[in-house]
Amino acid sequence: MSYLVSDFEAASMVAAETQEFGVAYSDQPAAPILGAQVLGRLMEGDSAAFLSARQIEQVMDAVPQHMFILEADCTLSFVNRAGREYLGAIDILTPTERLRAIIHPDDFEALWTAYQDAMTHGISVEAEARVRNRNGKYRWFLHQLLPLHDENGQIVRWCGTRIDIEEHKGSKEQAQRENLALREEIDAVAMFEEIVGSSPRLQAVLARVTKVARTDSTVLITGETGTGKELIARAIHKRSDRANRPFVSVNCAAIPRDLIASELFGHEKGAFTGALQRRIGRFELAEGGTLFLDEIGELPAETQVALLRVLQEREFQRVGSNQTIRANVRVIVATHRDLPAAIAAGTFRADLYYRINVFPLEIPALRDRQEDIRLLVEYFIDRYAHKTGKQIRHIEKKSLDRLQSYPWPGNIRELQNVIERSVILCDSESFSVDESWLSSAVRSSRPLAQEMISQEKELIEAALAECKGRVSGPAGAAAKLSMPPSTLDSKIRALKIDKHRFYTN
């Protein structure tokens, strides 16, 4: 094959020009097309002399980006040095099969469609796709295909180029991850902005927070619902060396069981029905920062195994991928459940419990820090009065006494809601609370966890009595309670229920 050019000196100009264009990749995907543009001008007859094919190949070999030549029938006729060194030996000659062998499966269809459009319409095209190197690793490239014409304007060959944009894509993806984490943190509605209280129980917790914050140890925060476990987790993060990195919060109880693994670890396109594109998981969003897993006791068994691996090996895989991703994340977990009881019931892994229980923090219930109630009441009154534009100067003594004597089963969250409702309805400068709102105060003084265990035991005993002690089968208690018989058996043992006393002839 021959190429039109004025003299050999022009070849040096081509080499210099292709080197210049070859590194000109900006943040805009549609950057000028490499040395292929220069090569195209040669083919279109910018001058009257000829340059040998070998000399043109030498020019292309001098370009640090990948360049290749396709014949009119798409047969590959030349790959420059950069492309050969990256790809290694490839024996496949069929254009489609060769492309499929080097392009990431998720990117193949889009790139092949772009190439077909170019050849059908005789136009230049470009597309982004990952290319596998000789070691099986993929990197992102900007692919460009340019038609080369003869002196009659007919397309005789195609010149292709590939620009490595891996760092560009990586920095863009990192920015997206950080932006998403930042939006989530900004949008999150905290229970309250400050930790309010001076009780000895609360101060003891804060002293432990200060000690553990500067470490990377996993923290297990326990306490009843509404005690402010996420607030404590945020306090640990803000006092840590990771404070300038993302804080990502996940409520494990709020995510469907079949989606929790994807939520935590991400997934690849096509990993399951509805996975139309790759998704970044919360572990990747929290890279370099802190991941807070609230209600960890609700994790399904298979996800518990995956989490255990992350905590032990500091690595994970997206759903549908075999590529291992390193995780530089500090993990803080929280639960209101009795995890040792859950282990006995067979719903929580003992090895995971021992792995997360490195530094336990128990948040006291509000009824155990009654001296803080007045401070919290004043704080919330000031907060909501400011929001509603009201002036509240006094707290009715009866209302304050009522608030201080109430056991607050919903803890600080319940107190917050009562104060907000009262401020909205307040028509004077004196704050008061409707007595009927707290009439449910006559409740068991047992801790909420014990109350829940007692209720669960009553439900199981009632089901066993109705089913005459039978556990398995369509007429058994397990079916009535909508749980596997093995799980019910574990709960019966953990709760020390004598199922034999329900047997009848």
Q: What do you see in this structure?
A:
With 505 residues, the protein is α/β, with parallel strands linked by helices. It folds into four domains: 2-164, 2-Layer Sandwich (Beta-Lactamase), CATH 3.30.450; 170-362, Rossmann fold (3-Layer(aba) Sandwich), CATH 3.40.50.300; 366-441, Orthogonal Bundle (Helicase, Ruva Protein, domain 3), CATH 1.10.8; 448-502, no CATH class. The chain has 20 helices and 16 strands. It has helices at residues 8-22, 36-43, 53-61, 81-87, 95-102, 105-121, 166-187, 200-213, 229-238, 260-265, 282-285, 301-313, 339-344, 350-356, 373-388, 397-405, 411-425, 448-466, 477-480, 485-494, and strands at 2-4, 50-52, 66-71, 76-79, 125-132, 138-149, 155-164, 219-222, 247-251, 290-294, 315-317, 324-326, 330-335, 359-362, 394-395, 430-431. Strand 3 and strand 4 form a beta hairpin. Helix 1 (8-22) runs parallel beside helix 3 (53-61), helix 8 packs across helix 9 and helix 12 (301-313) packs across helix 14. The longest helix has 22 residues, at 166-187.
